[in-house]
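Protocol step 4 of 6: structure prediction from sequence.
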Amino acid sequence: MSVAVFPYDNNVRVLMIDDPDTKWYILSYNNEMMLRKIHTYLINNKIIKNNIIDSGSWKGDNSIPWALNIASTNGTVYAIDPSEENCEYIKKTCELNRITNVKVMQFALNDKNETISTDEEIKFCSFSKHFTGVDGKNKTESYTLDHLLETKQIENIDLLHLDVEGMEMKAIMGSEKLIDSCRPIITFEQHLNKDDYVGLSKLIFNKNYQVFLINEHTPHHAPDCRNLMAFPNEIYSDKLIDDIHSHLNVKILEKLSL
């Protein structure tokens, strides 16, 4: 039986199911090394201690290590992905590892509740680039995070992680009540030459956040792909950023002037 070890996530060990995609999962520990180290620092220091949303969760390469790391504080990870195949992979991996604090949710995030579709393969597609209304061959439901909050499907969010292939702006626009009530740290992926990362960052900044670029290239993506991290003003301080940099031994968080 294969085992994936995540050295930047407190060395958590994950037993792997027998599946063709497992070889990619095992290699994923080395993706976004600095991003993983930052999240782990925030978890270890109880800055993130409650529930986490991992949207665009793929096979759970973030959801499952995070779930193992927040189990001691009774935190839950909401793993959101529109692909039935991806969701089943996460469920089977959690069952194998006896992980009970991951809630798998099969749909996409949006700025409204509606059916969306694509002619691309849902397990790794971009609805923003290949959106075909409801006429595409592959359909999925999409919801706002505010709807999930209001219907008590999610609660008490400390971290909102968005890797939703160009739907980040819509996901944030559908999260105003969640952001106002929970005040989570927000991590989101953007293509600096294609996405309106400045506009999205300003939208978050105007919610009383400080926004940082994590100057680390995201593997297996175009050279302009980066993650950004936004801290609510209640959490943010220069000392926090200095402490993170000291822990990483490198200054990689670049504050955006918005």
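Step 5 (inspection) to follow. The mean pLDDT is 92.
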